Structures are given as structure tokens and as C-alpha cells.
Amino acid sequence: MDYIFNGIFFLSVYLSFCAVTSWADTVTSPLYTHLFTNYNPRLLPMCTPDEKVTVYMGTALRQMMNVNEKDQILKINIWLRLKWSDCRLSWNSSQFNNSHLVVPYDTVWTPDITLYDSSAEEEMMPGRTDYRATIYPSGMVYYNFPTVLQSVCLVNVLYFPMDTQICTLKFGSWSHSGSELDLYPSTDQADLTNLVLHNEWDVVSMKAIRNVLYYQCCPDPYPDITFSLEIKRKPLFYIMSILFPCILTGSVAALGFALPPESGEKVSLEVTVLLSLAVFLLMVTEQLPASSVNFPYVGMYFTTSMILVSFSCAMTVLVLNIHFRGATGNKLPDWMRRLFLNRLAWVVCVKTGKRENKVHSEKNHYQSQKEPNQNTFSNKMDVEDTTNTQTVNGNLPNQPRLPSIVTNTSSRDLLLRTGDPMLSLLTEQSDTLKKIEGHMQKDESEEQTNNEWYLLAKVLDRICLYVYIFMTILTSIIFLAKMGGA
């Protein structure tokens, strides 16, 4: 039972298809025979000697597929819309019951529109011959087809990644001059209503301009239509992946001046930052064309940052050299002490310990004033000893004399001649204390020299820090303003 119903269904479908085909043949066959009996699609549709074919061209941009900055190639999906009048394909609509006629591509004559700056390796306009043309009773022929175009686009990367590019698409006839085929744009703007948004580029406009040029090969003019596609890059991806890490890495280099020299990591930090900037610069240069005419500002910014980091590395080596200069026994020159420790130290907010140095100098001054008084007292004791000796010789009663610690040479010799062992012991202790005091003064002098070199290195480190921060902020503002001014 099911086989019977299926057979009846397929039979009805077949009869309906045959009826429709027979009706279509009845409607279109006479018109097709009337138009294409003696029609040659290889010849220009020129019915009078002075006549020329006028072709109107329009485009609709569908999608921005790719912009290869390194190879400078633009790849887009575009809908081409061609319109022209063929005097051999007109008919009376009242005689033939057809408002239009759709025929294959190779049936009618079509203009050989060519993309002059095409970079396609195989077919220039793929799919051009796969679609059909529509003919109207007035003889107007419309041929619309989608295709993928690859065109040469000179990319100006000066303002990368905040750049705006203008790519030109130049269309014209390759075989016919302007005396045979004239070309006009349908509208002054391309159709962007069906545009698919791109994740990297925004389409600003696509203007059409008609040009008439004379070439050296031929005396006749050659008209063409140039579409100027203006696109603007979306910079957020490159800002977050290249610019922001570069600025952050350059800021980390300033921490090298804040590290103490004893850590031993100052130079290694600067070298690491320098290598990081070199990696970022390599990432940028791999994406951009090797052009010496329009070197991007972002590349100049990376180069300037590398120069600043190299300067910071050199200054770090200089600071380390100055910091350990005191170990060699060299004293700080007076002009350096006056310039850096007395004047520039308070400007860069470095404490030099002037109050301790002042107390130490006052103490030395007090001791220097005290020593003459002690010598005077010792001389006085020597005079008294001499007087007492003369009195004894003058038959005066002998009086007991207490031993005293003296520093005068004549008194020391007098005491040594007496042969008292206690006085000899005290003299040896006095000499030992003087040696200890001399060593302590020497150590204190060396420590003071080391502290002066250390303070000088600290002042230079702070000056370099401020200079580096200022130069980094200044270069960042200048180059970001340059890139943003595209």
C-alpha cells in the first residue's frame, strides 16, 4: 500500500516539473532566440560608428579579511556591481511577456574590468565567471558578483599602533581605451551597509574617484575608478601587549638606583631590563615592513628606552666604582665634597650626617687646645722639681716627693735616672696608650673617608634616579602624543 502512495506522489511531482519547464521554455525561449540568434559576445556593443560603451561601476564592501603590513598586501571580500547598455539586447516588453532575462556570464559581452594593483598569484577575481547577468528591455545589463581581491597597499607605519591607513583599489579596462569604453562610478561612496566588523580594523570610508590618464604606450586616454579605502587600527591590543609592558619595564629600571650597592644586583637588574626592551623591539619589527622611510614612533620609543636603560647601567657601574673607592685609601677631593655633599645633597634629599661631623671636629679642636695646657703643667712640674733639688743642695730639709706621670722628655729622663720600676711601668703604659690612640685615629680617618665616598655614591645614585625618571616620563609623553596625533 505504501509503495502505491509513494509512486503516485513522485508521479505528480514529475508532471508538475515538466509543466513548469514547458511553460518556462514557452516564455523565455522566443526572447532568447530573438536576442542571441546573431549575437557575438566577443564584440563591443557599439551600434553606431561614433558610439562608445559607458560602464557604471559600484562596489559593496563585505569584509576586511586581512592587512599584511609586512608584505603590504590588502585582502578584502567585495561585491562588484557593473552596469552598461547593450544596444543589441533591447526588446519590446509588450511583444515578449518578459520584464527581464537572466543569462549565463559567457552569453553576453562583459567589460574586462581589471584591478591594476592586484597581487593575486593565480586568479585576479575568483568567481567572476560563475554568476549570471540580468538583461532588461531597454538593453541595460546588470552583472553583480562577489569576489576576493588582493591588492598592493602601501602601509605607513609611522604612527603604529594608532595609525590610519588609506589603501587604493584602481579599476579600469585593460584592453579598451576611453574612446571605446568609458568608465564612471555609480556612486561616490562604496556601500558599507552589509560590512562585517573586523577585530583589528575599523572602516572609516571608501570613496570613489574617476581619473583619466594618458600612458606612454598609447595616445588615447584610459579612464579608471579609484576607490580609496580608509581604515583605522584598533590600538587596544597593541597598547596592552606591547606599549604598557614596555613602559612598565622601563619603570622597573629606575629601581636599580634604589638598590644598595652591597646587594650586588644593580647591574644585573639593568641588563635584564635592557634585554627585555630588546625583545619587545624585536616583536614590533617582526610585524612591520622593513622600511627606512617611515620608521614607527613606537620603535623610536623602544630605542630611546634602551638608550636610557644603557645610560642607567653605565651610571650604576660608576656609582659602584665610587662606592668602593674609599677602600683604596684615596681621599675625597675638596671640590667634590663642597659640590655634592654640601650643596647637592640637600637638593636630592640625602642626609650626609653634618651634625656628627661637626661634633667630631669640635671634639678634636677641644683636644688640640687641651694638649698645650697639659704640656704647660708638665713644664711647671719640672720647674718645681728643679727648685726642690736646689733647696736640698742648699742644706734645706729633705721633703718627700710623690711620683707623677709626666709627658715631658726631660722629666722622663730624670725619672728614668732615679731607677724607680713603677715609673718605668707607667711610662711603658703611656707609650702603649699613645699607639692605641694613633691606631684609633687612623681607623676613624679611614672610616670617615669611606663614609664620604659612600655618601658621594648615594648622592650620585639619587641624582641619576631623578634624571632617569624625568627622561622616561618626558619621552613617554612625547612619543605617545606623536603616535596619538595620527
Polypeptide structure, described:
This protein has helices spanning 2-36, 236-252, 266-287, 297-323, 334-347, 354-393, 409-418, 421-484; strands at 53-68, 73-85, 101-104, 113-115, 132-135, 140-152, 164-173, 181-185, 201-213, 222-233. It is α+β, with helices and mostly antiparallel strands. A hairpin with a 4-residue loop joins β1 (53-68) and β2 (73-85). α2 packs antiparallel against α3 (266-287), α3 (266-287) packs antiparallel against α4 and α4 runs antiparallel to α8. Mean pLDDT is 79; it is low at 17-24 and 354-408.
Per the principal axes of the C-alpha atoms, what is the gross shape? Answer: rod-shaped
Determine the structural class based on helices, strands and strand pairing. Answer: alpha+beta
Write the element-wise H/E pattern from the N-terminal end onward: HEEEEEEEEEEHHHHHHH
The chain-level mean pLDDT equals 79
Span from first to last CA? 78 Å
Strand order of the largest sheet: 3-5-6-2-1-8
Largest sheet: 6 strands, mixed
Residue share in helix: 40-55%
Number of helices: 8
Ranges where pLDDT stays below 50 over 5 or more residues in a row are: 17-24, 354-408
- Proportion of residues in β-strands: 15-25%
* Rg value: 50 Å
- What's the number of extended β-strand segments? 10
